[in-house]
Amino acid sequence: MLLAGELNAIGQRLTELGAVLQSRAAGPAPRQTRVPQQQAMPQPPGVPQPAMLPQQQEAWAQQPYGMPPAPPPQAPQDPPYPAMPQPVQAARSPRRVSAGQLTTSRVLAVAGTAVTLLGVVFLLVLAAQQGWLLPQLRVGGGAALGATLVASAVWVHRKQAGRIGAYALAATGFTAVHLAVVAATSLYGYFPKPAGLGLGLLVAAAGLALADRWRAQSPAVGAVLGSAVCAPMITARPDAMLVGFLLVLQIAATPVQIRRGWRGLTLAAAVPCVLGALVADVWNLVLPRHDGTTLLAVLAVSLLGVVLAAVTAGARRGDDVTAVGLLVASPAPALLSAPMVERVHAGLLAALVAAMLLAVWAVGRFLPAFRSLLPGRFTAVAGGAGAVAALQATVTFVDPSAWATALLCEALLLALGAFQLRSSGILLGALCFGVAGFLVSTVHEVPIAALLGLGRAQGVPGVLAGLLIAAVAVLVPAVAVRLGALSREPGGVWALPGVVLLYGSASTIMALVLIVRDDRTGFLTGHILITLSWVGAAIYLLLRGVRLTHLRVAGMVLIAVALAKLFLFDLATLDGFARVVAFLCAGLVLLAAGVRYARLVAAEQADG
């Protein structure tokens, strides 16, 4: 029994020692009084009994017979010393590719694409000329090669390191398939033209969809540009079929360009289309007879280009530079195709393009729903391009003898429209049409030679042109003042409309007089009336300018101009009696005006 008690005591002490070590390893804990545990069995006489606390006695009572109580639970603590880090094997960093290696890859990809596409063209064209293979084998071989290249591109694209090669393979493959469709339609007639164009659209859309899925612009640009460059080698002439296939490429590229905003794709699709249409215009001019189908294809290029430009500008507001370039270039083929058709049809063609452009301008300018979509610069360019198309429609429709009258009438209408709509852009168009009409009129309707006695005015057309010139010279500056684009105060900028007004009034008077008497007497009478009319207009301005400074200054300037004409031109040109009449009438009018003006000034001072 004594041996059992000693062993039990030793076990209790070991338990306490383990609890102390565990508490020290777990962290600092509240200090506890070490109390020896009570023995489970009665001790023999002479062995001291350790004292126990009440809590220890309760824990001892709950333990099985002969087993020491478990140490009190300790709260989890952070270890006093951090654990030693385990050795980790360093990950290998991926090997970087240098810029030179990427450049080399791109050069090889571009070179491979170009050489392969030339091989496809030779297969489709040169083999046909030499009769090496059956047409079915040529077209089928080109299509099969293209499909194989596309499948290889999809397989290579799965590897991160082969993206450049995948892009080159995809562009080459889709271009080969598209060229096979072009050859099957234009060279061999396997497909009807509408079906061939539709199939070409599907092939181009598939290639661009793959580029869109890969989010890569290079295969899209390569496929479109490769097809656009190689297609003329197959069709061999810029006819309606070539323009149609180029237009199909532009249509297929538009959704992807709008979605991704790829400028390179837009240029690759739009520029060949416009250039092809322009070349088709020139080609159609040299033909003995004009091809109406080519004309329709050219018109479709222009109208669709305007629509696509507007859609691009609305969908990609931050990329309106590309849209503006497309808007400017698209109408050119239709406008330059005027010599291919009769004058009436050419005028209708230009009028249709002008109406479409002006419709885009009006929608973006006056409809609130679209004003926030179309950028202001795009809208302004659409209006300017529409004005140019309207100018061409005017000079195409109208006979050259009435160009000045038509242009000046359009200038007046535009000036009135600018006043009603409060639009400075429309006023700029009115100014441009007015300047064009004035320059044309000085050559035909009211030439300068008619005022110098070296030529004759055109009778009634001259009178009408002179009146329109004077009206434009008055209305355009007046609207500019109302819109705030021109200051009311007198300045050097008013000299130009003043000179135009004097020219228009003088031409009108001379044309009227020459209608009555077309000889030397009529010429002299016309100049006398011109001088007197200028003096009268100056006096009117002075009388109205008693309170208005700008009218008074205008009157004084006009008086100076009238006197300069009287002494420098009339004195040397007019004969004896005509000279006397001119000076006497001008002097008497000036005297009467001076007396009247003095009375008005005195009355103004008395009222003040």
From TrEMBL:
Transmembrane segments: 107-127, 139-157, 164-188, 194-211, 218-234, 240-258, 265-286, 292-314, 321-338, 344-364, 376-395, 401-419, 426-443, 463-481, 493-516, 522-543, 550-568, 580-598
Biased composition (Pro residues): 66-85
PANTHER family: BLL2549 PROTEIN
Pfam families: DUF2339
Entries under InterPro entries matching the protein: DUF2339_TM
Name of this protein: DUF2339 domain-containing protein
Annotated segments matching region Disordered: 23-88
Lineage, top ranks: Bacteria, Bacillati, Actinomycetota, Actinomycetes, Pseudonocardiales
Keyword field: Membrane, Transmembrane, Transmembrane helix
Organism superkingdom: Bacteria
